[in-house]
Design a protein that fits this description.
Layout: H1 8-13, H2 34-43, H3 46-51, H4 53-66, E1 72-73, H5 80-84, E2 89-92, E3 96-99, H6 106-110, H7 117-135, E4 141-146, H8 148-157, H9 165-173, H10 175-199, E5 203-208, H11 216-235, E6 245-249, H12 256-260, E7 266-269, H13 275-282, E8 287-292, H14 301-315, E9 321-325, H15 335-349
Parallel strand pairs: 1-4, 4-5, 5-6, 6-7, 7-8, 8-9
Antiparallel strand pairs: 2-3
The protein binds coproporphyrinogen III.
Amino acid sequence: MSKLRNDRLLRALRRKPVDCTPVWIMRQAGRYLPEYRETRKQAGDFLTLCKTPELACEVTLQPLRRFDLDAAIVFSDILTIPDAMGLGLSVNEGEGPRFERAIDSKTAIDALRVPELEDDLGYVFDAVRMIHHVLDGSVPLIGFAGSPWTLATYMVEGQSTRDFARIKALMFEQPQALHALLDILTESVSGYLAAQVKAGADVLMIFDTWGGVLSHTEYREFSLSAMRRSVEALKSDEMTRHIPVILFTKGGGQWFKEMADSGCDALGCDWTTSLAIARDTVGKRVALQGNLDPAVLYASPDVIERAVESVLDDFGAGDGHVFNLGHGITPGVNPDHVRVMVDAVHQKSARS
Ligand code: CP3
């Protein structure tokens, strides 16, 4: 059914046999690559890079020119949706993202609208179309969005945070207001992901970077339920139902059973959870993606090779593994070490 020349990722996500384990890297296009830093300088700033399809296409392809990766991921950011809602996003070097108009009241939530996809986010779909065209079926293209909860944390905090004070105060004091915000975001995320598929994405991933800061019961109510509704919307639409969906909650290992029940196809696993234990928990319902500690890439090549082997051994024999880091690659990593990791995954997992 797929016309891709390399369909390892799609096969692994559907838990079908592969010749070797597919590998891609969260944040594979980014600051650890000198050519990325060069293109970013040329663009002037991060958001211009995201909003210029030719440049977004160029940086998407940069890691694929260097490494034998089994997928491309659209170069963009999870914060495009709140930006399109008019919150005034800026991303400054060394400071991270910041919103000029953070959400500070129920009134501000009531004033929010689901973005007009083509008018407000058309640059993302233009980039997807361009990347899809240039890839020309060589590897699958992953589209993505932030989870509604994770987007809400940035919208309410206005910037990166350590203690989540504002979003948690809203959650405890005005849960209905937070639910109203999550409802708007859920609808936005589903529409945004479907539009990426229409533009050429072959796989979708939802990044729930901050689900793991919630308690057991709050995770279900404020993070998982919204992701489940987004997955249900994708799986009930004729155009998107066949597209594999990966859910990644950082720190979410203890909720894998419930996450696997969401109707998604795969779960992203950070390095704190054993793939073997995760596999016991989810059985054959979903594939697993992960989970090398990103910091291993600071070690020497022989240490990296052994660590790759230990992740492959932890998953064990059988289908349904996509190799990845347990979270995004960090800016200080030596690109040569990435090559060691990618090649080790293919060599050590090759099926005879
Ligand atoms: O994976 C890829 O190669 C695609 C690109 C991608 C970016 N952001 C580019 C980016 C993806 C998938 C994201 C997702 C994203 N953005 C997440 C979820 C993934 C995760 O790591 O948990 C989050 C939480 C964000 C929000 C965000 N954007 C932050 C916190 C920051 C600043 C801190 C940081 O890591 O750099 C950004 C900016 C950003 N997004 C950069 C890149 C390459 C760095 C910008 C720069 O060039 O200075």
